[in-house]
Amino acid sequence: MEARRSLYAARLCVPAHPRAPRLPICLWLGMAATLDFAQILDVLAEAVTVRDRDDHIVYANRAAIQDMGFADLAELQSRPPRSIMAEYLVRDELGRELSMGDIPSVKLLRGERADPLLMRTVQRASGELKWKLLKASPLTDEHGETAATVTIIEDVTEGKNAELRNRFLAEASEMLGSSLDYGQTLQNVAWSVVPQLADWCAVDLFDESGEREHVVVAHSDPERLELAERLRDYEPRDLDPAHGLGRVMQTGRSELVNDIPDALLVRAARDEEHLALLRGVAMRSVLLVPLRTPLRTLGVMTLVMSESLRTFTWSDVEFAEQLASRAAMAVDNALLYRARAEIAETLQRSLLPERVPLIPDWQVATLYRPAGADREIEVGGDFYDFIELDDGWLVIIGDVTGKGLHAATLTSLARHAARFMCRIDPRPSAVLRAIDEALVEHGQMSLCTALCVRLRTDEIVLCAGGHPMALIVGTGGELREAGRPGRLLGMPGSARWQDERLELADGDTLVIYTDGVTDARGADGRFGDERLRDLLRTRAGWPPAALLAALDGALAAFRHGHQADDTAAVALARTPVRPALTGSPASARRGSA
After folding, report:
1. What pTM was computed for the model?
2. What is the pLDDT of residue 195?
3. C-alpha distances in angstroms, 585 versus 364, 541, 592?
4. pLDDT digits (tens, 9 = 90+) for 367-399
5. pLDDT tens digits, residue range 538-577?
6. How far apart are alpha carbons 23 and 11 in whole angstroms?
7. Which residues, 6 or more positions from 347, have their beta carbon under 8 angstroms from its beta carbon?
8. What is the pLDDT of residues 242-281, one digit of tens each?
9. Long-range contacts made by residues 379-382, C-beta under 8 angstroms, separation at least 24?
10. Residue 486 to residues 54, 251, 466: CA-CA distances in angstroms?
11. Whether residue 71 has pLDDT greater than 50
């Protein structure tokens, strides 16, 4: 019924379109007299006012009078319209300040076009925020001149707030899910909060021991941020569980304070300078919201209203809690990821040598990049190892199936089998046979490729099991494969692996690698064997560390998207190595161990 009454009155008073026929003022007044039109308008939910050409409000219905805080029409008419508007901070949808000249009814009286105006008002006394949609149409006299204007003022606060909050939550959720760097993500969210939702926004996190991390303080005015930095010096080392952030952390419940008298600041201040800083913030309303997960409270988001003169409502509290809940989930996920990454990195380090050993008559360098190193950390299946023998060294590189704990288990099993066999029979073929037997006994289709190289003073022996062939790079750029293909390790049934003796001249480089090198995916396919060989030929004579650094850089430049497979490589060069080619890297800071 109320909606029908509003529509009926709107049709009588205000044309639906600026070009619709204007209602003569005599006709309007006649209807008001014959139909008791004022009583009809008084039952409307929308505020309705009539302004004459002298800028006087000659009529206002009950909703308009109540909305402006007056007892009756006479009290309203006793005040100049401009003085009434001065009691509010008035801005448009884009945040631009509005004056009386921007009001549609005033524009019509000036003979200008007046489109509907959506404005945001904040009452200076109470801090109450409202969104209002103003629509005005002219009333003409018997000569067709604009004698007055009728304005319908619709309160659209609830709908506009819902629209803004839904949009903000969608954008905030996208920000929170876009990165596992929770610090940067929370900073982005805090800066998007001001000044739309609050004048200040701060986020503090606390670990399980109570250690505090100041993540961000945001304000639209950089000069005002200096206040926050100076106030940090007055923060107590330990939180008081009975007040402020300490109580929010203790209870996990939000706290809203809309009454902040100066006496409260005096009691809270530690000295005169502290009091001056607190007064400088000019806090009008404060909202503390916990960043809470089902298991614990991670921190507190502090929202402050000051120069905007707004105050928070319980609707604001509910919205802030939704935002804080999503932020807490993002932080919790990031912390879980960090813990997982630290575990994975620690486990991965335990499966690789701590350092590259010094092997007499050889220069040695290594390269290792786990899959997903640019996205997430997980224990990979590629490995290498250096085992010292009585008469030299055994170098092994391999690739087990799977990722995570499964890969870690197989890698540990393969390395243990290799080291055990080196005490009994250090021939590369015997080492591969030992790994094969251990994997078969382990079951669960535990497969592995591996390549072993035995380095002795008088000979170099190589054996491969299902692994990419080694490459020998001569100082003049010539390149050849070394070794023979052998069966994959871990498959049921008997098999034999054959050792092959290699001949390397001084300065030649032996490169062994996993298939993560050639299988690296780019925009146009795999990195492939030819690209690898071309890279090695053009860098013949380079020291092993520089050679692998160049390979690492080439793979990074070629790769499209995240790294899908582990990458491992070992380069060994007989000394003396010829001087590096002009333009070659001076060191192997990247990619060498």
Report:
1. 0.63
2. 87
3. 16, 12, 13
4. 998 876 444 556 678 899 999 999 999 999 999
5. 999 999 999 999 999 999 999 887 777 888 999 999 886 4
6. 10
7. 379, 408
8. 888 999 999 999 999 998 999 999 998 999 999 999 999 9
9. 379/344, 379/347, 379/348, 379/351, 379/403, 379/404, 379/405, 379/407, 379/408, 380/348, 380/407, 380/566, 381/407, 381/410, 381/411, 381/566, 382/514, 382/516, 382/566, 382/567, 382/568
10. 101, 65, 5
11. yes
Per-residue confidence at 582, pLDDT binned at 50, 70, 90? very low
> Which are the contacts of 99, defined by CB distance < 8 A and separation ≥ 6?
none
Residue ranges with strand state E in 159-235: 200-206, 212-219
- Exposed, middle or buried: residue 1 (CB in 10 Å: 0-12, 13-18, 19+)? exposed
Among the listed residues 97, 101, 102, the one whose alpha carbon sits nearest the alpha carbon of residue 120:
97
Is residue 69 classed as helix, strand or coil in its secondary structure? coil
Sheet holding 500-502, edge to edge: 382-389, 392-400, 448-456, 460-465, 500-502
Name the amino acid, one letter, at 294. Answer: P
Separation in Å, CA 301 to CA 201, 230, 509: 7, 19, 58
CA distance 447 to 492: 10
Write down the number of H helices and E strands in the chain: 19, 24
Distance of alpha carbon 85 from alpha carbon 45, whole angstroms: 21
Give residue 42's pLDDT band: very low, low, confident or very high (50, 70, 90). confident
- The answer, yes or no, to whether residue 344 has pLDDT greater than 70, is no
